[in-house]
Structure formats: C-alpha cells, structure tokens
Amino acid sequence: MDDFREKRKDVRQNYFSPVVYTTQDQEYREYILDISGGGVFIKTRNILPPDTEVNLFLPFPGGNYISLLGVVVRSGEKGIAVQFHNEDLELIHSLQSMVESLHLLEG
Prior knowledge:
- By secondary structure, this protein is an alpha+beta fold.
- 22% of the residues lie in helices and 48% in strands.
- It holds the Pfam family PilZ.
C-alpha cells in the first residue's frame, strides 16, 4: 500500500459524492470516497478488473457534471481505483484546482 501512495503525483482528498460510470456494456451508480487530479477511488461491490476502461461522470461545483475517461488501476473488496486518461488537460487542470480548493477548505 505504501508503495502505491509513493507513486501518486496528485494530492488525494476525501470527497464523498455520487458518481456514474460506464463500461462498454454496463452503467453503475456508486460513490466516490476520495479524489485527486489524477483519479478517484469508488466504493463499489461491482469489482472491475484492472485495465478496464471506464467513462466517469463526476459531479462538479454548480450542479454540473464533467465526463472523463479512465482506467481501473486497482481493485479490491472495498472498491476500485480509477486513473484518469490525460487526453483532456483542461478538464484535468480544473479538477486539480477543485481538489486543491477542497484541501484548503479542510485544512
């Protein structure tokens, strides 16, 4: 577990929020437990194997949602860790700013 944390580039922030994500053949409605500019951890009983591609619809301040593509990088009995693809750098930057703001508000 410590090795995984050392690989993280972005600040991870507790963030309990609903999320919708889809695979090629399934839609899921679950909850995010934490978030960073690089990914999310989703609490779920529907464990997806690593390397599964997902499309996430993340709640964003103001009642809007953003759509990001990601890949499952880790899964276990508590849920799945999804790393965002970096194709949309503007959305990733906005998400990183939001997470940093959450961190400042909590601190």
